[in-house]
Amino acid sequence: MGGKLLFALMALLYAAGVALGLKAPEQLAETVIEEARRLVESIFTGNPLELALRIFLNNARVALLTALLSPLVVAPGLLVLANGFVLGIALTYAAGRLGWAAALAAVLPHGVVEIPALLLAAAASTSLGAAIWRALLGRGKAQWRRELWSFAKAIALSLLLFAAAALIEAIVTPALVSLVRRLPPL
């Protein structure tokens, strides 16, 4: 399966996760929000650059986990689905308390960079996992090296995108949410 097709598949899985999260039962949503709150509290800091570093490290950890799960070919896709599910729950929760404009302002600025970074890492990991299995089964050993190189480039790009998204999330997003919350409701 080609890289673009895998990326599109990951995007569909992410969208499905968001849709499921938007419709999650309230009790499950509360549990997920409480866990997310603990994570946010563990990385929150008053210094935006330190916060950006912590956000980046958390996202890099997810990319590493995705890479480590690559031999379980479907695992990166499941991770993407779960990530989308959590976003759907978080959007519903935030919209209920702040309104949809503020909820979207809290996600979109960095999300337009962070989500493709996650999808890229997952697609590359899935492709690598398939190449590992082909090589183990004696098919495509030459392709294995090429796939490993493609994977390394995709992960490097993903990490650069995660770094940019972390800076946006730590610096731009709070200011935008604050601005949107001061606007009169539509």
TL;DR of this structure?
With 186 residues, this protein is an all-alpha fold.
What key phrases describe this protein's structure?
mainly alpha; single chain; 6 helices; 186 residues
Low-confidence stretches: none
Rg result: 18 Å
User: Helix content range of the residues, please?
Assistant: over 70%
What is the strand content? under 5%
Q: Could you tell me the number of beta strands?
A: 0
Given helix and strand content, the structural type is mainly alpha
Q: Regarding quaternary structure, how should these chains be classified?
A: single chain
Mean pLDDT: 89
Tally of individual domains: 1
What's the tally of helices? 6
**Overall form:** elongated
N-to-C series of helices and strands: HHHHHH
Distance between the termini: 45 Å
Tell me about this structure.
The structure is a single chain. The chain has 186 residues and is mainly alpha-helical. The protein has one domain (3-182). The protein is 87% helix and 0% strand. It contains six helices and no strands.
Secondary structure layout plus pairing:
Elements lengths: L2 H20 L3 H18 L4 H21 L6 H24 L1 H37 L4 H42 L4
